[in-house]
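Subject: sequence -> structure tokens, single chain

Hey, anyone have a minute? Need the predicted structure for the following. Not urgent.
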Amino acid sequence: MYNKIMVIGNLGRDPEMRYTAQGIPVTTFSLATSRPFTDGNGERQSETTWFNIITWRQLAENCNQYLQKGRRAFVEGRLQVRNWEANDGRKGTSVEIVADVVRFLDRAERESSESIQLDETQLFSDTPSSADDLPF
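Reply:
Had a minute. Here:
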């Protein structure tokens, strides 16, 4: 079995970071993708699909720091389906992308000319850079 999805789109809201009870950072944001097409009448149309994105650990911290509403990003990860129940008893289902890789496609506007030196693996990926970074 293989579960992989790749999308490029614009953030629909600023990322929101929180921490699990174990202190692990998790950041969520929404990403909008658009698909232009011609309908049966020959008119140009556009279809927008929204994706909820979840990032963990160092990738979550980087996304929270460097992304913001309106920025373009490439996201690679796996689809996850969650079933949930609201306080009023309503049941629902959420489909989300758990990101392994996030590439920032827009340059962040810097208030200073200071350059930031980051290891690309740590900036864009949830892959630990050493055995000490493993959560288990």
